[in-house]
Amino acid sequence: MTKTFRIDRRGFLCGGASFFLAGCTSGMERQFKLPVSPQNDPYYLSLYGPLPDERFPVPAVDLKKVDPAYYRRVVDYDGPERPGTLVVDTPNRYLYLVAENGQALRYGVGIGRDGFAWSGRARIAYKRAWPTWTPPAEMVARQPELEKFRNGMPPGLQNPLGARALYIFDGNRDTLYRVHGTMEEWSIGRAVSSGCVRLLNQDVIDLASRVPNNTPIIVRPA
Q: Which one is catalytic: 123, 127, 178, 180?
């Protein structure tokens, strides 16, 4: 039996109810009301607000540093992938969690810079909350200042893997690429990392809560 995948729209949209109700004002009030920019939209301010209950409390995202096109949202999706699949649209800097009924949950991402980009079909072998980051030997060779982290950098807000990491395997082989969090808001929508796919910490926490181990992932080439 095929297991269907549904986005919990109630959980995803719950923060928006008050915003929509707030829009039910009289014609006179609407006449003098200035439009709310996405950066000041109460819904997105709630979606990307602080997470004080995390092991390392996560501060609110400065939405002025993120293009609104990369805010998390439910979108129409007409790709051929089965529900439950992760799809990284490298050229457009999006990650999709495919749902049924022609929809997907879309996140903005930062991707690998030229020379370090990776693409292909693989799986999320496992996930880690507040992971240790261990730079590959070849990265240490390129950047000697990372020698002190050869055996691992402890978790925390400054750890390059952020609040969550999803480990990408090709069969039983670790590709050394990850889907992970970041504190660097400005990097979303850009090609900056060493091949990994980075999301805002609020987004990667949400994503990790939705996908089980062995979730298939497709990274489309640039």
A: 180
The pLDDT, as a whole number, for residue 127 is 98
Strands 120-129 and 111-112 turn out to be unpaired
Q: How far apart are CA 192 and CA 187, in angstroms?
A: 7
| 95 and 197 Cβ atoms separated by less than 8 Å | yes
Q: Using alpha carbons, select from 35, 39, 37, 42 the residue that is nearest to residue 20.
A: 42
Contact 123, 217 (CB under 8 A): yes
Q: Which residues of the chain have a pLDDT value below 70?
A: 1-35, 115
| Per-residue pLDDT, 8 | 57
180 is catalytic: yes
Task: Say which of 98, 196, 197, 200 is annotated catalytic.
Answer: 196
Domains of the chain: 9-220 (2.40.440.10)
Give the strand pairing for 191-193 and 111-112.
parallel
pTM of the model: 0.84
b/e sequence 7-33, b meaning 16+ C-beta within 10 Å: beeeebbeeeeebeeeeeeeeeeeeee
